[in-house]
Design goal:
The chain is an alpha+beta fold and 278 residues long. It is built from five helices and 16 strands. Strand 11 and strand 12 form a beta hairpin. Helix 3 crosses helix 4.
Length: 278
């Protein structure tokens, strides 16, 4: 089985989170009027500072994970449930409400320029994460993927929590919405069945490989794909709410040695599956 899954999804997926909590929490500074009755300004408290770097240019990136009770908590989650969630095929069903701030330029301890982002989560949930390393790693991963999806980034998973620093830069105010959008704006587009072709190699004689080529227009990265390869079945979901494919094929394939490659230029996913028997 091969899985490429994401704990926190793109902004369209975050609309589902907004439906759940009836709040729009991903508004950035300057996008809404601070005097609007549908929003309010909050000043979060520092929490922890996480150091990582951008995969594209290897520049340092700092994530200030902040806390505020103006942000609603996620549903109750035990440690056992968290372990099950992380081992599941689609952990994105659990969403953590958060406010993602705009990037700001700072100076690190080496007097070098760097980029910092402020992420605000519920204060009680933050304290829970501080008491358990597994929850702490979970909320960091959620924050990283949230920033990646919102700002089209690719951040390293080799992060470090700074022991003697809770925040890089100065704490800034953030705007969050207090009312939901009209229901008509919250409706999600239906899942579509993508176009695909199945190719047997070689075309004559005993089959050695079954190759699936799946067209996924609008999917910019493999990060939004969840692929499961079974012995005689292929299941693909392209999040957020774009495509879903569930097909059976007439061959038994080697799941462990099957490979998948997504070409973001052609927007075609190619799945190559060694045939065990027909």
């Amino acid at each position: 089985m091969m899985t490429d899954s994401s704990l926190l999804n793109s902004e369209l997926d975050l609309q589902q989170q907004e439906e759940l909590y009836q709040q729009l929490l991903l508004q950035t500074l300057g996008q809404i009027n601070s005097e609007s009755p549908d929003s309010k300004v909050i000043r979060p408290e520092p929490g922890m500072c996480v150091k990582t770097f951008s995969e594209s240019n290897k520049e340092k990136v700092f994530i200030n994970v902040c806390q505020s009770n103006s942000v609603p908590p996620p549903p109750e989650l035990s440690r056992e449930k968290l372990v099950e969630l992380l081992q599941s095929d689609d952990p994105s069903g659990f969403r953590v409400p958060m406010s993602l701030g705009e990037p700001h330029t700072e100076i690190d301890n080496s007097s070098q320029g760097c980029t910092a982002y402020d992420v605000v989560i519920n204060q009680d949930f933050f304290q829970k994460c501080q008491k358990d390393p597994l929850f702490q790693q979970f909320v960091i991963l959620v924050s990283v993927e949230g920033l990646e999806n919102k700002y089209n980034l690719e951040l390293s998973r080799e992060w470090k929590v700074l022991k003697n620093r809770k925040f890089l830069g100065s704490v800034s105010e953030q705007n969050i919405r207090t009312k939901s959008r009209p229901v008509i704006e919250e409706l999600q587009p239906p899942l579509r069945r993508p176009e695909f072709t199945m190719i047997v190699e070689p075309p004559a004689g005993e089959p050695e490989y079954l190759i699936a080529e799946i067209k996924l227009p609008g999917v910019g990265s493999s990060r939004s794909l969840v692929l499961d390869v079974g012995e005689d079945r292929l299941v693909l979901t392209a999040r957020p709410s774009l495509f879903h494919l569930d097909i059976f094929h007439p061959f038994l394939v080697d799941q462990e040695n099957s490979v998948a490659q997504y070409n973001s230029s052609t927007q075609i996913l190619t799945v190559t599956m060694p045939v065990v028997s027909s």
